[in-house]
Amino acid sequence: LGPGEGRAAVLLQPFVHQVGGHASMLTYDEHTICKPLVSQELSFYESLPLAMRQFTPQYKGIVSVHLKKDSLGNLTLIASPESCGRLDSAGDDPAVTLWHKRRWTGSGGSEHGLVKWSHSQVTKSFKDSCPGKKLLRTDLQYHTDSLLEDANGNQTERKSYNPWGLHCHRQHLNRMSSKHNENKLQQFLLLENVVSKYSYPCILDLKMGTRQHGDDASEEKKARHIKKCEQSTSASLGVRICGMQVYQADTGHFLCKDKYYGRKLSPEGFRQTLRQFLCNGNQMRTDLLEPIILRLKALLSVIRKQSSYRFYSSSLLIIYDGQEHKESVDHHLPFPKTHGTNPSRVDVRMIDFAHTTFKGSKSNPNPTLHDGPDQGYIFGLENLIKILQNLSEGK
Predict the structure, then answer these.
(1) pLDDT value, residue 94
(2) Is 35's pLDDT higher than 50?
(3) Which of 76, 91, 234, 318 is the most exposed place for a label (fewest CB within 10 A)?
(4) In sequence order, what DSSP letters do the residues of 282-339 get, joined into one string?
(5) Which domains does the chain carry?
């Protein structure tokens, strides 16, 4: 037996709660997700300022992944456990099969093969892989306003997942299969799954700052990002909506919005969508406003102290559980208090640091040095806090 052979392989799934971004996120285990490694992001996690740790996912190491193709043309990604760096719980980390085997079929002259998703198969393997876990309730329907279709115009998977993550996943598989190379190792970052403790994670993904392009962007990319900012609330508010899922208690469905919806919003539309994010179909969750505002203020004071950091194109997640825990209210169960709020009721986390630059970055030894804190990010946070404060005052 070679290293890592003969151990039970773990099947990794598309991460069903991905609401934004374009890198495909995968579920590694219940508390860990992985994403393709970008050296600038790794450099950020490796030199993370202590004060920022409570506002970012925990970095758990790196795993190497290679593509495998069987005689039927099914593709699988296998992660080599012996290459697993710094994974805290990696006692005897098994070899990891990163993707379900999928049949590739040529589709009417398109340059890429197309994934045929067998819906019941995906749902079944999800259920098998985590019996009794509320995390991946595949029986819940996700609703979305902008339908994502595959090349054949099918919308079959609309029934079970937030369609955005599936869309990223399909694109990623298409890219990988077109560059198909069995021996090429690809590295993935292992990060804390920050929504794993929620039964029905309600997630708002906000693109922060008035500028989105990195220092290394080409002129063409720079122009494209500047235009997106000017035509959205990024310019006026320093924040725009990149994705959202909200559990609707009255229907048992998630309401989903994607980045294209977020780009079209006016400042007033942005306010209304924030209000919608806090509505569970029956009522407005006003109880969440204070804890969210407190956490955003705490983050603001941390960002103000980070000199030279520029968080271009990074996102801020606001998370809460769509299932209210009434029993905790009824029985006055003690909760650990931090800043007067129950820490697990809401969470605020920064993610996506592929274009983050700072003095002393290992991946970028000669970065464009920026002075002082990230004013665009601060502008966005201040406006976000202001809008939430107005909501809490009933404006």
Answers:
(1) 37
(2) yes
(3) 91
(4) SSB-GGGHHHHHHHHHHHHHHHHT-TT-EETT-EEEEEEESS--HHHHHTT-----BT
(5) 8-85+165-194 (no CATH), 201-324+343-393 (3.30.470.160)
